[in-house]
From TrEMBL, chain A:
<dbReference type="InterPro" id="IPR003439">
    <property type="entry name" value="ABC_transporter-like_ATP-bd"/>
</dbReference>
<feature type="domain" description="ABC transporter">
    <location>
        <begin position="29"/>
        <end position="270"/>
    </location>
</feature>
<comment type="function">
    <text>Part of the ABC transporter complex PstSACB involved in phosphate import. Responsible for energy coupling to the transport system.</text>
</comment>
<dbReference type="InterPro" id="IPR003593">
    <property type="entry name" value="AAA+_ATPase"/>
</dbReference>
<dbReference type="GO" id="GO:0016887">
    <property type="term" value="F:ATP hydrolysis activity"/>
</dbReference>
<dbReference type="GO" id="GO:0005886">
    <property type="term" value="C:plasma membrane"/>
</dbReference>
<keyword id="KW-0378">Hydrolase</keyword>
<dbReference type="GO" id="GO:0035435">
    <property type="term" value="P:phosphate ion transmembrane transport"/>
</dbReference>
<dbReference type="GO" id="GO:0005524">
    <property type="term" value="F:ATP binding"/>
</dbReference>
TrEMBL record, chain B:
<keyword id="KW-0813">Transport</keyword>
<protein>
    <recommendedName>
        <fullName>Phosphate-specific transport system accessory protein PhoU</fullName>
    </recommendedName>
</protein>
<keyword id="KW-0592">Phosphate transport</keyword>
<dbReference type="GO" id="GO:0006817">
    <property type="term" value="P:phosphate ion transport"/>
</dbReference>
<feature type="domain" description="PhoU">
    <location>
        <begin position="121"/>
        <end position="206"/>
    </location>
</feature>
<comment type="subunit">
    <text>Homodimer.</text>
</comment>
<keyword id="KW-0963">Cytoplasm</keyword>
<dbReference type="GO" id="GO:0045936">
    <property type="term" value="P:negative regulation of phosphate metabolic process"/>
</dbReference>
<feature type="domain" description="PhoU">
    <location>
        <begin position="18"/>
        <end position="105"/>
    </location>
</feature>
Length: 275, 219
């Protein structure tokens, strides 16, 4: 008799373990039934995502799928777009950031953001990093020095710039500038770092440096990264959400998404058959 | 719309190369029985000589698959397609080796008359070759029913192997002077039984390709 045994016991045990670990992890952002319209355009449709702390969550999907819109709702930057309408809830550490009276300034102190193109201020390297802490009221030069060094070390660029902290950040290469921007985000000691295509303007080596850095940073921060580079999502993230036409098609362990996704549309996208 | 046209084409080429290797193994196995039945030493020697082609084909498949992995960074089912092609190529090449082993046994038996009719061996051979053909169809069509059938046929081969060995062992006692030939016939039975196991691996790989999970059909 042929017995059809599913040899998944090993993988099942593993995934159960992952599940248990997951239970131990806290949710940093819990999005519930989020809908967003730009005028008449329904850009995000019933988004439900629970994002864990100390993990890298990648958001992938073709252009116009809503991934950048979504990440911008997480620090409410999306409100800068006129005619935007939002319904649903985004709980950050248990509190709905969309509710009336929520201080967006508080949110942005906890949630840093790194953008596609490096955008350092036209100031010295030192001032770029010290800027945030200064506006948060830190004046003590010694403390500021410490923050600058710690942030630059955290962004893996200290050794490259420590001898020229007073030079203009514009003089750095693109990859260095991006790490300065990451250091600037770290300087306010955030809880979460949002990254919107942080390496798409960088060369391959700088890209790998930023990727390494993300791996390091997740020990202390929760990272949500939008990326067009699927291999990057596969390399660096713990979980991956696949967005399509404003919906989350699949949200799962990155290992699962890139080895055996549940949804045909996810498979078609990651194997490059559309998008 | 097919975005990765070149990659799709390359996958197809790989697929065809694998089927070509499969057909080669079918032919080699057929020839090996023909040589045994007809005591055709010349044909047996030809099998030995031709086997180099199977090795070259296997290497080509592996190299091509590795190149595609390096250049295309495939994921999910695409990656499985390439890994599975490498694994199936190994199994098929091994089957061609069994044809070589049978041919070598045939050469060792030489022109001596056979101690007994080789009905069971012929049946095992027929089943193994049918299994191989069916497994290639299962791979080609990604047909899990066919893959399952292959596994069921393997049970028949195992039964036949048990019977054959039993008979040959009792024959060894009654005709000890024929021990050399009996040993060769036992080897041949063993090669065929192993060949069927390798086909079952191919069937398992078809399951893995389609489902993305591992199944043990060799039970």
């Amino acid at each position: 008799m042929t017995v059809m045994t599913d040899k998944k016991h090993t993988t099942e045990n593993l995934s159960m373990k992952a599940g248990n670990q997951e239970n131990a992890k806290k949710v940093v952002y819990d999005t519930k039934d989020l809908n967003l319209w730009y005028g008449e355009g329904h850009a995000l449709k019933n988004i439900n995502l629970a994002i864990n702390e100390n993990e890298v969550t990648a958001i992938i999907g073709p252009s116009g799928c809503g991934k950048s819109t979504y990440i911008k709702t997480l620090n409410r930057m999306v409100e800068l777009v006129p005619s935007v309408k939002i319904s649903g809830e985004i709980l950050y550490r248990g509190r709905n950031i969309l509710e009336k009276g929520y201080q967006v300034e508080d949110l942005r102190t906890s949630v840093g953001m790194v953008f596609q193109k490096p955008n350092p201020f036209p100031k010295s390297i030192y001032e770029n990093i010290a800027y945030g802490p200064k506006i948060h009221g830190i004046r003590d030069k010694k403390i500021l020095d410490e923050i600058v060094e710690k942030s630059l070390r955290g962004a893996a660029i200290w050794d490259e710039v420590k001898d020229r902290l007073n030079q203009n950040a514009y003089g750095l290469s693109g990859g260095q500038q991006q790490r300065i921007c990451i250091a600037r985000a770290l300087a306010i000691e955030p809880d979460v770092i949002l990254m919107d295509e942080p390496t798409s303007a960088l060369d391959p080596i700088s890209t790998l440096k930023v990727e390494e850095l993300v791996q390091e940073l997740k020990k202390d921060f929760s990272i949500i990264i939008v990326t067009h580079n699927m291999q990057q999502a596969a390399r660096i993230s713990d979980k991956t959400a696949f967005f399509l036409n404003g919906e989350v098609i699949e949200f799962a362990e990155t290992d699962k998404i890139f080895s055996n996704p549940s949804d045909k549309r996810t498979e078609d996208y990651i194997t490059g058959r559309f998008g | 719309m097919v975005v990765r046209g070149k990659f799709e084409e390359d996958l197809k080429t790989l697929h065809e190369k694998l089927l070509e290797l499969g057909n080669f193994a079918v032919q080699a196995l057929d020839q090996s029985l023909e040589a045994l039945e007809n005591k055709d030493i010349e044909l047996a020697l030809k099998i030995l000589e031709d086997d180099a082609d199977a090795n070259i084909m296997e290497e080509e498949i592996n190299d091509f698959a590795i190149l595609l992995i390096a250049k295309q960074q495939p994921v999910a089912v695409d990656l499985r397609r390439l890994i599975v092609a490498i694994k199936i190529a190994t199994d098929i090449e091994r089957m061609a080796d069994f044809a070589v082993n049978i041919a070598k046994s045939t050469i060792r038996i030489g022109q001596e008359p056979l101690v007994k009719p080789i009905e069971h061996i012929k049946q095992m051979h027929k089943l193994s070759v049918e299994m191989l053909k069916l497994s290639l169809e299962a791979y080609n069509e990604e047909d899990l029913n066919k893959a399952k059938q292959v596994a069921q046929m393997d049970d028949q081969v195992d039964d036949l192997y048990g019977q054959t060995i039993k008979e040959l062992l009792s024959l060894a006692q009654s005709k000890p002077e024929q021990l050399a030939q009996i040993t060769q016939l036992s080897f041949i039975s063993r090669y065929l039984e192993r060949a069927a196991d390798h086909v079952t691996n191919i069937a398992e790989n078809v399951f893995y390709l389609v489902k993305g999970k591992r199944y043990d059909l060799n039970q």
